[in-house]
Structure formats: structure tokens, C-alpha cells
Automatic annotation (TrEMBL), chain A:
PANTHER family: ABC TRANSPORTER, PERMEASE PROTEIN (PTHR47089), GUANOSINE ABC TRANSPORTER PERMEASE PROTEIN NUPP (PTHR47089:SF1). It comes from Pseudorhizobium tarimense. This is Simple sugar transport system permease protein. It holds the Pfam family BPD_transp_2. The chain crosses the membrane at residues 12-38, 58-80, 92-109, 115-138, 147-165, 198-216, 245-263, 275-291, 298-322, 328-346. CDD domains: TM_PBP1_transp_TpRbsC_like. InterPro entries: ABC_transp_permease (IPR001851). It is found in: Cell membrane. Keywords: Cell membrane, Membrane, Sugar transport, Transmembrane, Transmembrane helix, Transport.
TrEMBL record, chain B:
The keyword Transport applies. It is a multi-pass membrane protein. InterPro entries: ABC_transp_permease. The chain crosses the membrane at residues 29-51, 58-84, 139-156, 186-205, 211-230, 237-257, 263-281. It comes from Pseudorhizobium tarimense. It comes from the Bacteria. It is found in: Cell membrane. This is Simple sugar transport system permease protein. Keywords: Cell membrane, Membrane, Sugar transport, Transmembrane, Transmembrane helix, Transport.
Length: 363, 304
């Protein structure tokens, strides 16, 4: 028995909607098996993992808090991946954005002004964009593989943050805790509703997603991204520059990751500390693919992945499963998304009898 | 003193060399598997758990190799049978590996492990200086050297190796010549997985005999960079691996001596070195183009 693929003449519209859902169902199924192997009631576990967090107002706010960075980073990455630029260092750009955005509230803690927050957000975006500019520069100038350089820069950014908050940025009155002074109220990203913690970042995320959807759908730039991503040669004939696209896509995604970073620090944490992200930059890669690299799809997939984080925390409390389960869920989900995507471009046939010799020569 | 430092360099370099050699074979067949980090960490955790359960680190080594190969099969099925995107699938393998290994190893955190003991080769082990360095090592070190020589021979002196390189350079022509592209690639991917698993086993049985979450700490990615650095040649992988081992150990010693540079900056050195090395190697477009397997990362669907 073997599996045979037949290319569809046109990619299937039906399956481009069904495949992410199918991937979700498969993930839930295998997740249930995993819970069963851990000695838990699968349905109860799945319920407390994926449903319970949706039943209370405060946890819906948490969902928005966690979805915001995932969507912001995810839509940026989708532009990169569409244009065939493999930025996998968003976690580093997130970190650097958080650092550059925090310069003002950390170094000028006495400065109370409504100006400070917009400045912080802009500086965070600039920091993230410049940091993503490093792999872009290396790729365009030295032909260096951006996958490896952007990833190495993640480790470097995290070590730099660690040094900052244990060294020059540490709060002298902080009982030796490795963290900065708390931000002044003017430097804290405001909450959107009275009822909970969700802050402006989720609004930024939705605006960014819709704007990039508009760009990809209606603007020449979006067309340029798609053409260059599918065939650099065709793009060149159309007068597009692959080199400029490297810069554009990397710096755009870097800026969005930087915005996510400073929003997280300013809105959710309130100071800078050695760990500021539970791996948002990497999870956003899954978000981008689950959303089929479509900015509107990414809004939905951002909430799904945010739920895996929340579910992990909830399941740890209610049924005593380690929160590492959420990482497993995220990995499984990406696997199933990628395999189900095959259905969009290919017809799959399972061949049970062996082909006769020579059959391979017939068209 | 020098001997002790060189010994630690060898221990730090061995996992890099082994993982990079495996990936080199995979990439020579035209497949780019970015999941080295994930396969490595799975090898590390499974090797550790098997050793703790059975009491024998040798069973641990076998278990680590098996885990790496089995895990790579997932990647193989997706990219070779279902022609999924290789970059994305490799990332998926890494993400899943990091999560799964944390889950498997959770109850083993902090347990003292059993170290894989050195094997003293008689007579050779008594040579002053070189003896302790090269002939009183553990099994995995000997395997790493055997792999370098074996893979060099396989790629450049054997018929099967020639066929595999042909697939990596032009899968359509190789297919037309009647070489089974998919089967060869499956084997190459599994070999890469087995090597990554072995490298992981070295981490949890030799380098630091215990289980720490995320203990591969980017070594899988450095191994990927090493393959580029070595321009897909096994002997150069050996040289590159030892260079990186030296950088890693050098910065650790510098931290211990406290030479006034913050430890975080020293810890960042291997990653900075990786970037610098990639720049030096890649900036000459022509040689990169000649050395890179031409169908690397490209999907292949056999026509029938």
C-alpha cells in the first residue's frame, strides 16, 4: 500500500477552508489520546483545556492579551513567508522592540507626559525593524541564509536583555530582583474595557491584520509580495526587486514584532524583566501557517493558539497536567496544518495493489 | 591544564560534529531538514530516560539513535510523501520536539544521571598527551570519528553515494535514470535523524549527564550552520565542529576567570561566531552556488 499524489489543475477552494479545521480536529483527537496516555479522562481534559477558559470574563480578557502579540507577529511573518523570506527570529525582534521601547520609561522615570506612550511604541517598532534589518542586510549584501542568522539573533537578543536587567537597568531599590523600576502610569498601555486586563495591543493587532489584508488584496505591493514569493524570475520581469522585498518584508515583520514586544512589556508586565515572552515569536510561526498566511485567517488562528496557552495554565490547575502540554499541542497543530495543506494542491489516492512493471513509463 | 581544556573542547565539539554530519547526508540528497534541534532534544531525553530505566548508558545510546530516526520519519512522511514545505515542516519538528521532550522528561529533572564511561584502547591510550585525548574517550567520540571517515568514503567513493549526490543535484534526472528518489531520500532523512539522536544522547549522557529542559540550547541550529560552513564536505565538518567547540569552551573559561566582560556577552559568542562564519562562507556567491546541492529544499513529485 502506498500513497500517490496527483496535482490538481487548480488549488481546491473547498480544502483551503476545510484543511485548517481538519487540522484542528486531528490535533484535538491526538491530544485526547495523549491525555488518555497520561492517565486522564480525555474528554474532561480537553474540556478544561479548550472550553473552560472561554467561560469567564477575566479569562476572555487573558485570551485577548495573549492573542494580541501572536496576531501582530503572525501577520508580519505571513508577509515574509509569502515573499519567500524565512524570518524565524521574531522572538528576538520582539525582545529588542521591548528593550528600545522601554528606554524612555526606564531611563527617565520622572518624565510624566502624554507624549511618552506614543514615543515608546514608535521606538519599539523602530528597534524591532532595525534588528530584523540585520538578517536582511546579511542576506542582500552577503547572501547569508536568513533562517540561521535571524535565529542566532534570538539568542543574542535574549542574552542582551538578561544583561540589561541584571546590570545597568536594574532597579536599585528592587531588593536585588533582576528587573527595572515599574513604569509610570503614563507609560502603561491603557486597558480597553473596564471589565479586565485586555489592553490596546489587541486593537493594534486587529488594525495591522486588516491593513495587511487590504495591502495583499488590493495594492500593488501585495501583488509584488506574491509574485516575488512564487517566482523571483517572474517578479524580475515585472520590474520588481527581490532585494528590496527582502528589506520590506523583514523590516515590516520586525516592526510588528517590536510593537508586540513593547506592548507586552508596557501593557501586560509594567516593567522589564529577564523573561518577557512565553515563546510568542515562535508560536506566531504556527499562527501564520494555521491562518494559511492570510491576515484575516491569522486573526482567527491567533485566538486559537492563545487558547492553547490559556488551556495549558487552566489544565495545570484543574487536572494537574503540566503546562508543557500546550507546547505539544502547538507542535502537533503545525504538523497537521502542513499535512492537511497537501489536500489543497493535490488529490491523494491510496494505491493498494502494486503497479505492474513498466507502468511508470506511461504518462 | 592544556590537556584538560582540549578534552572539554572535544566533548563540546562531538555533538556538533555528529549532528552536522547527519544533516550533511540529508542535505546531500536534496532535503533540507531544519528539525535538527528537535530531533537532538528528543534523542537527549529518550537516551536519558532509557539509561535511568535500564541502568545502562549503552542502551541509552541505542534508544537515543532510534528516537532521532523515528522522529525524523515524521518529517520524511510530510515532506517526501505529502510534499509539504520543508522549511515549515522542519520548524514544526523542532517545536514539537521541544514540547514533547519537556513533557517526557518532566519527572526526570534534577535526577543524577549515569555517565557513559570512557573506553581505554590498550597501548594507544598510553601515548603521552595524545593517548588521553584521542584513545581514552567514550564510545560516542569514536563513533563521531568513524562517521566522518565513513561518510566521506560513502559520498565520494561508493556507487550509492554517487547516486545520492545525483539525486541531490538533480532529482528529475536521477529519477529518469531509474534511481528511486523518494526511497533514497527517506533513508537519508532517517540517517540524519539517527545522527541527531546520537548527538542528543551525547549531551545527556556525556556532556552533562542529566536531563535539563531545552538542553540542546541551539546546538541543532549551529550544526545546520556548520553544514553550510563546511560547504557540504564531511572533513570540513570535523574542522568546523572543533572550531565551534573551542569557541564554546573558550568563553566558558573566560567566564570562570572573570576577565571583566559580562557573562551574557561571552555566552553570546558561539551565536555571534555562527553569524560571522556564515557571512565569510556565503559572501562568495559563485562558490556557494557550486557547493550547494542544486535541488536542496525543492519538492519532488514523481511523474507517472
Amino acid at each position: 500500500m502506498r500513497i500517490e499524489l496527483q496535482r490538481r489543475s487548480q488549488s481546491s477552494r473547498l480544502f483551503s477552508f476545510v484543511s485548517p479545521l481538519l487540522a484542528l480536529v486531528l490535533t484535538l483527537f491526538f491530544g485526547g489520546i495523549m491525555f488518555w496516555m497520561l492517565g486522564k479522562q480525555p474528554l474532561d481534559a480537553l474540556y478544561s483545556f479548550f472550553v473552560e477558559p472561554l467561560l469567564e470574563v477575566w479569562s476572555l480578557h487573558e485570551l485577548a492579551v495573549k492573542a494580541a502579540p501572536l496576531i501582530l507577529i503572525g501577520v508580519g511573518l505571513s508577509i515574509c513567508y509569502r515573499s519567500n523570506n524565512w524570518n524565524i527570529g521574531a522572538e528576538g525582534q520582539f525582545t529588542i522592540g521591548a528593550i528600545t521601547g522601554s528606554i524612555l520609561p526606564v531611563l527617565y522615570p520622572e518624565w510624566h507626559s502624554p507624549m511618552i506612550l506614543p514615543l515608546m511604541l514608535v521606538m519599539g517598532m523602530v528597534g524591532g525593524a532595525l534588528y530584523a534589518g540585520i538578517p536582511a542586510l546579511l542576506k542582500t549584501r552577503f547572501n547569508t541564509n536568513e533562517i540561521l542568522t535571524s535565529l542566532m539573533l534570538v539568542y543574542i537578543a535574549q542574552l542582551y536583555l538578561d544583561w540589561l536587567v541584571r546590570g545597568p537597568w536594574r532597579d536599585p531599590q528592587g531588593y536585588n530582583f533582576p528587573q527595572t523600576k515599574s513604569f509610570v502610569p503614563e507609560a502603561v498601555l491603557p486597558e480597553i474595557l473596564e471589565s479586565g486586563r485586555a489592553h490596546l495591543a489587541i486593537a493594534f493587532a486587529l488594525v495591522a491584520a486588516v491593513a495587511l489584508w487590504f495591502m495583499m488584496r488590493f495594492m500593488l505591493k501585495g501583488f509584488e509580495v506574491t509574485v516575488l514569493g512564487q517566482s523571483e524570475r517572474a517578479g524580475r520581469f515585472a520590474g520588481f526587486s527581490a532585494r528590496r522585498m527582502v528589506w520590506f518584508s523583514m523590516m515590516l515583520s520586525g516592526a510588528l514584532a517590536g510593537l508586540a514586544g513593547i506592548s507586552e512589556v508596557s501593557g501586560s508586565i509594567g516593567h522589564v524583566q529577564p523573561t518577557i515572552s512565553p515563546g510568542y515569536g515562535f508560536t506566531a510561526i504556527i499562527v501564520a501557517f494555521l491562518g494559511r498566511l492570510n491576515p484575516l485567517g491569522i486573526i482567527a488562528s491567533g485566538f486559537v493558539l492563545a487558547l492553547t496557552y490559556l488551556g495549558g495554565e487552566a489544565a495545570q490547575l484543574s487536572i494537574g497536567i503540566s503546562d508543557k502540554v500546550s507546547r505539544v499541542f502547538q507542535g502537533l497543530l503545525l504538523f497537521f496544518v502542513l499535512s492537511c495543506d497537501t489536500l489543497i494542491h493535490y488529490r491523494i489516492r491510496i494505491v493498494t495493489q502494486k503497479l505492474r512493471g513498466g507502468a511508470a513509463h506511461h504518462a | 591544564m592544556l590537556e584538560a581544556i582540549l578534552l572539554t573542547v572535544i566533548t563540546a565539539a562531538t555533538p556538533l560534529v555528529i549532528a552536522a554530519l547527519g544533516e550533511l547526508v540529508t542535505e546531500r540528497s536534496g532535503v533540507l531538514n531544519l528539525g535538527v534541534e528537535g530531533m537532538m532534544i528528543m534523542g537527549a531525553v529518550v537516551a536519558f530516560v532509557a539509561t535511568q530505566t535500564t541502568g545502562s548508558p549503552y542502551i541509552g545510546v541505542v534508544a537515543g539513535i532510534t528516537a532521532g530516526a523515528a522522529f525524523s520519519l515524521l518529517f520524511g512522511f510530510l515532506t517526501l510523501t505529502l510534499v509539504a514545505n520543508q522549511v515549515a515542516t522542519g520548524l514544526a519538528l523542532t517545536i514539537l520536539g521541544l514540547g514533547l521532550s519537556g513533557q517526557i522528561g518532566e519527572s526526570y529533572v534534577g535526577q543524577p544521571g549515569i555517565k557513559l564511561q570512557p573506553i581505554n584502547i590498550p597501548i594507544l591510550g598510553d601515548i603521552p598527551f595524545l593517548g588521553p585525548l584521542l584513545f581514552r574517550q567514550d564510545l560516542i567520540f569514536y563513533l563521531s570519528i568513524a562517521l566522518v571517515i565513513g561518510i566521506h568514503w560513502f559520498l565520494f567513493r561508493s556507487r550509492t553515494g554517487l547516486k545520492m549526490r545525483a539525486i541531490g543535484d538533480n532529482h528529475s534526472s536521477a529519477h529518469a535514470l531509474g534511481i528511486n528518489v523518494i526511497r533514497t531520500r527517506y533513508l537519508a532523512v532517517m540517517f540524519g535523524g539517527a545522527c541527531s539522536g546520537l548527538a542528543g544522547a551525547q549531551l545527556s549522557l556525556v556532556y552533562t549527564p542529566q536531563w535539563v529542559e531545552n538542553m540542546a540550547a541551539g546546538r541543532g541550529w549551529i550544526a545546520l550552520a556548520l553544514v553550510v560552513f563546511a560547504s557540504w564536505r564531511p572533513l570540513r565538518v570535523l574542522a568546523g565542529g572543533y572550531l565551534f567547540g573551542a569557541v564554546t569552551i573558550g568563553q566558558l573559561h573566560a567566564q570562570a576567570f572573570g576577565i571583566g566582560i559580562p557573562s551574557q556577552f561571552l555566552s553570546a559568542l558561539p551565536y555571534v561566531a555562527t553569524i560571522v562564519v556564515l557571512i565569510i562562507i556565503s559572501h562568495n556567491r559563485r562558490t556557494t552556488l557550486i557547493n550547494t546541492p542544486a535541488s536542496l529544499g525543492k519538492p519532488f513529485v514523481p511523474e507517472r
